[in-house]
Amino acid sequence: MPDAFGGRTLLVASGKGGVGTSVVASLAAIAAAERGERTLLVDATEAGGSLHHLFGLRPAASLWSLADHHTQPADVAIAIDDRLSLVAGGTSGSAAVPATDHERRSAITKLVYLFEYYDSVIIDGGSRLDTIAAVLELADPALLVVTSADRLALAANYALVKSTRARRAESVVAVIANRHGESVAADACEYLAGACAHFLGRTIEVVGSIPDDPCLQAAVGAGMTVRDALDGSPAADAMRGALARVLPPVSPPAGAPRAPMAMAGASLPPLPLPFSRRWS
What we know:
Blueprint: E1 9-13, H1 21-34, E2 39-43, H2 51-54, E3 77-79, E4 84-87, H3 101-111, E5 120-126, H4 129-139, E6 142-147, H5 151-167, E7 173-178, H6 182-200, E8 205-210, H7 214-221, H8 234-246
Parallel strand pairs: 1-5, 1-6, 2-4, 2-5, 6-7, 7-8
Antiparallel strand pairs: 3-4
Helix pairs in contact: 1-8, 3-4, 5-6
């Protein structure tokens, strides 16, 4: 069953760092797995990479390990449970930050080979434009823009939508506000959506808001995994509602491929490497 965005892959990103894309992406992936969907959560951030910390994992490889031609896609997928898997980001294990756009796009091209084994794919793209551009062009996801209500974040996200429109005009874009009450969040999202509609001719769907959740933040800060800290969390409840609008529930088709944890060590066909292009 196709979703409202015409696909099962969602890129969570922002024009400004520090607005919480990692938490939003992790909550979205957990919500999808709760619905019974085989879900892949991908950390596409290039510096530290935080998603494995949120789930209490110590990965031996990351997404960027795929830039090495010896590393296969199944080698980087970590099974958290029977419905949720993670591909870590940053410099996990022996991975290095991509030195060139060619390496970045090579790794993402190989990553896409995993998608057919999952019902939903959630990608944390962070705020680096090179990475966001590569994911949009190679994985063809819908884009969920995470914003706060401050003017800098709104301006940066307007620029992100503008750049997305210039590079991939057909991409569907939605916006969600993080760490705000409903009134402030609604004003911020409507402001951004209105500016994009007026100046860019681009329609953006507002899919809700994630309230500030001090208990969740304190629990994670104290060392609990994000899944263990979700009981009674208003942020998790809000993300479940938002995900229903972004990626409606889907029933896995009969005879669908098995999850890739069973594929570790399997050989894959040669992978074409994309031409190097930058987002300027």
